[in-house]
Write a structure and sequence with these properties.
The complex is a heterodimer. Chain A is mainly alpha-helical. Helices cover about 80% and strands about 0% of the residues of chain A. Chain A is built from 9 helices and no strands. The radius of gyration of chain B is 35 Å and the shape is elongated. In chain B, helix 10 packs antiparallel against helix 11. The chains are: A mainly alpha, B alpha/beta.
Chain lengths: ~210, ~400
């Protein structure tokens, strides 16, 4: 029963939501809206558990003075500080917006900016012509890169931009579409496995 | 002469009073005569909607550019032919020749007319018409048929598998390497890092990641290897905790399970990335698994793991991120291979059957594409294009 009931609930919910995709009637739209509200409610309760997990983890680090425990103080202070400002002054308050725009956003932007360097180092490794396939990859990358900058057009009399266009629009799109088709069918097969109770690992133990 | 000059203002005023209204009347007449008539071609319940909407289609008039074009159309409505038609909507003049009138009462009869704004020119009466919700979206017929066919195919292969039919699955090197990676971490006495991505617990990629986590956790329980699972979404954390706990229980080592190793970090993309990178550089896991939904952080995670010297196995259904994982990881499960992992690892005939159905589905799509390309290229027919046209709006 501990297994059968969740499988039955999963099947019924998944079946109704699958039907909802094909039935635009208002009654099914309302069901979809209600299910979205339920997801949000479950998400809120899960968030409480998540925050408890975060606090416990960092509290343990501070308590036992584990390596880099100072960062845990910063984490907990940030969590409490932002929460208090949000709760007391509301999320639209200037203080909350200032904290978000001038602390969190620049930190995130800095991390994102590092991506350029990661791309450079990964490209350096990926484009080493050790095998035939890697050499083809290198050649394709060089053509596409040169095709996208003015000097590429200048040195090749406009050939590189055209070749880059062909590489990006045909072999690249063909490979992507093959992946998309596989992903689409794979997702449908996985959804069926979950609906029919064949895939149950996400439920944990009995 | 002087009398004539004295009377000049009076003559001027009289001319204003008499001539201007005559011109205005004549002008109005000209505008009226130049504006073409309006004709409603069709008024109907809006197709493929949830109800409360009526679509009105009119014949697009062609205007003479030498006269002022009206600013828009007014849509007039009445409950019955005897009632007055009241203006309910204004549609700006443009390319449009149809309009969906929203917030209509379902099941109630209406009549419509259309006219130019600020003029008396109005169209014929169209109706009666009623709004109603539709029980099937005709634009999704192709999707519906394909879904039914795929479900039937899957059920057919499931029945075949249940009767003991043998199903062959090609080797997937990325999945075969999972056990080796865990073995390496055990030998080195270092932990394993499992990153379930940025997807919600309900995402298919995350569900597929849980099935691999189940397998990994069973082995780590047997080998007594530490497993770290930093989570982006709290609900993912809860499911991951349950999956790992169940695996430790199945392996007969519930005492080794530590729920503090499966924890929530944040739901901000780059702070999460920074935190996971920090774990990789501080704890130096010997094996990193990046399985699930990944976006811009994929390369940052994989490159940091590479720098930390870990063996890395990645898998995602995000086509754009696959090249990054291929460049920086030892093995990559591309798209559907991630979904295939659970069947491949368990060798359960029922799971293998769904995998087989997927393969047959792909074969069907390929055959369909080849036939479609030949028919379109050789015979110039767009039959297959129209057949596969999906209108989801």
């Amino acid at each position: 029963m501990k297994r059968e009931l969740p499988i039955a609930i999963t099947f019924i919910c998944a079946f109704i939501l699958t039907l909802q995709y094909f039935i635009p009637h208002r009654s099914f739209e309302i069901m979809y809206e209600i299910s979205n509200i339920w997801i949000q409610i479950i998400g809120v309760f899960a968030m409480i558990l998540g925050i408890i997990s975060l606090i416990m983890l960092h509290w343990e680090k501070i308590k036992h003075k584990k390596e880099n425990w100072g960062f845990s103080i910063v984490t907990l202070a940030s969590l409490v500080g932002m929460s208090l400002v949000g709760l007391i002054a509301s999320e639209n308050s200037p203080v909350f917006e200032w904290l978000y725009n001038f602390i969190l956003a620049p930190i995130s932007a800095t991390m994102f900016a590092l991506l350029a360097f990661f791309i450079a180092s990964a490209a350096y490794r990926a484009f080493r012509a050790r095998t035939v396939v890697a050499t083809i990859l290198l050649l394709a990358a060089v053509i596409v890169m040169l095709g996208r900058v003015p000097i590429g057009s200048l040195i090749s009399f406009g050939i590189f931009p055209k070749m880059a266009e062909i590489l990006v629009n045909y072999p690249n799109v063909a490979a992507k579409r093959a992946i998309f088709m596989g992903v689409g069918l794979g997702a449908a097969a996985t959804a069926l496995k979950v609906m029919l109770g064949i895939e149950r690992s996400y439920m944990g133990s009995d | 002469m002087l009398d004539g000059i004295k009377n000049l203002p009076i003559v001027f005023l009289l001319s204003i009073i008499i001539i201007f209204p005559i011109q205005a009347i004549a002008g109005e007449g000209q505008t009226k005569s130049k504006l073409p008539n309006l004709t409603i071609e069709k008024v109907m319940d809006t197709p493929n909607d949830h109800g409360r909407s009526i679509t009105i289609i009119w014949k697009k008039p062609s205007f003479d550019s030498s006269f002022a074009i009206p600013t828009g159309y007014k849509i007039l409505r009445a409950d019955s032919l005897r009632s007055n038609f009241d203006s309910v909507e204004f549609v700006p003049i443009g390319k449009s020749k149809s309009f969906d009138i929203q917030n209509i009462e379902d099941g109630k009869t209406y009549y419509y007319r259309i006219g130019y704004a600020n003029t008396e020119i109005i169209s014929n009466i169209a109706g009666p018409v009623q709004a109603k919700g539709n029980w099937f979206h005709t634009g999704k017929t192709t999707t519906f048929v394909v879904t039914i066919l795929f479900c039937a195919l899957t059920l057919g292969i499931l029945i075949f598998a249940r009767r003991g039919g043998e199903l062959y699955i090609r080797p997937i090197s990325g999945i075969n390497a999972i056990d080796d990676a865990i073995g390496r971490a055990t030998e080195m006495g270092k932990p394993i890092l499992f990153v379930p991505g940025l997807g919600a617990a309900s995402d298919v990629a995350t569900i597929a990641a849980f099935t691999i986590l189940e397998h990994i956790a069973k082995i780590t329980a047997e080998y007594k290897t530490r497993i770290i699972v930093p989570c982006y979404a709290p609900e993912t954390m809860i499911v991951a905790q349950e999956v790992v706990r169940a695996s430790y229980l199945d392996a007969g080592r519930p005492d080794l399970y530590n729920d503090k190793e499966i924890f929530f970090i944040t739901q901000e993309q780059f702070p999460y990335t920074a935190a996971v990178n920090g774990i990789m550089l501080r704890d130096r896991p010997a094996a990193n698994f990046f399985l699930g939904k990944f976006y811009a952080e994929s390369l940052m995670l994989a490159e940091t793991g590479f720098e930390a010297g870990a063996i890395q196995i990645a898998g995602t259904d995000e086509a754009i991120q696959i090249p990054f994982f291929v460049a920086a990881c030892d093995y990559t499960l591309m798209g559907e291979e991630l979904y295939a992992a659970s069947a491949y690892l368990s060798k359960d005939p029922m799971k293998l059957a769904t995998l087989k159905a997927e393969d047959w589905g792909k074969a069907g799509v390929i055959i369909f594409l080849i036939i479609g390309v030949v028919v379109a290229s050789v015979f110039g027919s767009d039959f297959f294009i129209r057949l596969l046209d999906v209108n989801v709006m």
